Amino acid sequence: MDEYGVAGALAVAPLLAAFDAAAETGNFTRAAQRLGVPQSSLSRRIKAIEQALGVALFQQSGRGVTLTAQGHALHERTRGLVGALDDAVRAVRADADPDSGLVHFGFPLTLGPVSIPSLLAQFHAGAPRIRLRLVQAHGEALAEQVRAGTLDLAVMIPPPPDLPSVPLGRQRIDLHVARTHPLARAGRVALAELAETPFIANPPSYQLRALLDSWCAAAGFMPRVLFEITEFDTLRELVALGLGVALLPAAEQPHPDLVIVPIDGERDREIGLVSGDHRPTLAVARLREFLITRAARISTV
User: Hey, what CATH topology would domain 172-267 get?
Assistant: First the structure.
């Protein structure tokens, strides 16, 4: 297939369409009418495919034509291919339409309940026919899908350096403690004060965990992580129960039993809109521009 290439596949498509129509109708005139081409064009296409294969595909039968043995063999193997190709082309063109296309869009677990859904609702109001297939996952999972081409766009925190991205803002990271924790009334905490404090955190593959480890190492200690969990709502619930503290972005829906305490230094991370290396469809470009113009809305969460 590599030697044949896409150009060859596209070139043979009208020849197969002519062959399929003639085989179905048993008449070159009716086949040409079905395809909306002159009969002379259809005859040339049939002759071209016969010359390419080196066999006759049709034989005269009264005022029409019938398939030869080789023609029957070819039709058995290609039956339905033309219709499937036509369906595929229509689907791809529809997905590329700026008003009714399809966009595969991903966003992180920390921007789920409010900010991204509300932005998508606004986008849908202005482009109601564009379909969105949504994926919510942690950063590396989103990056892998963008690289593989299964996601067109993704909001990521932070964006990976190997993918094209546009900055949308920054997300602050603070200490989260239970209301009953001794630090709940602190105005600000130095990270070094937490050397003996138990932490609740994501697994090491998560970027927030990497930040926790690196920031604590810079403060002279390694965090004592008692619980590791991927799900942020459950993580916050464990903190609220007094089982440990956590470094997290503020929840979009605040937990009543959690207190947020600022920690020393610049403790934030970049929010970026990431796209693949492929050329975007018009629908993808439309969503991309919408999100860029609404960047302030994302960066305030």
Answer: D-Maltodextrin-Binding Protein; domain 2 (3.40.190)
Element (H, E) at 115: helix 115-126
Neighbours of 231 (CB within 10 A): 10
Residue 199 forms beta bridges with which residues? 225, 245
pLDDT at position 241 over 60: yes
Query: In which band, very low, low, confident or very high, does the pLDDT at 100 lie, cut at 50, 70 and 90?
Result: confident
Q: Domain map of the chain by residue range?
A: 5-94, 98-168+270-299, 172-267
Q: Which CATH class is domain 5-94?
A: mainly alpha
Superfamily of domain 98-168+270-299: Periplasmic binding protein-like II (3.40.190.10)
Rounded CA-CA distance 289/187 in Å is 39
> For the whole model, what pTM was predicted?
0.66
Copy the structure tokens of residue 204.
Answer: 């090491």
Residues 214 and 173: beta-carbon distance below 8 Å = no
Angle value at C-alpha 202, between 299 and 146, nearest 5 degrees: 60
pLDDT band at 143 (very low <50, low <70, confident <90, very high): very high
Alpha-carbon distances of 22 from 10, 28, 79, 249, 292, rounded to whole Å:
19, 6, 12, 65, 52
Other CB atoms closer than 10 Å to residue 237's CB: what's the count?
Answer: 16
| Separation CA 264–CA 219 (nearest Å) | 11
Q: What is the rounded distance in angstroms from the CA atom of residue 202 to the CA atom of residue 234? A: 11
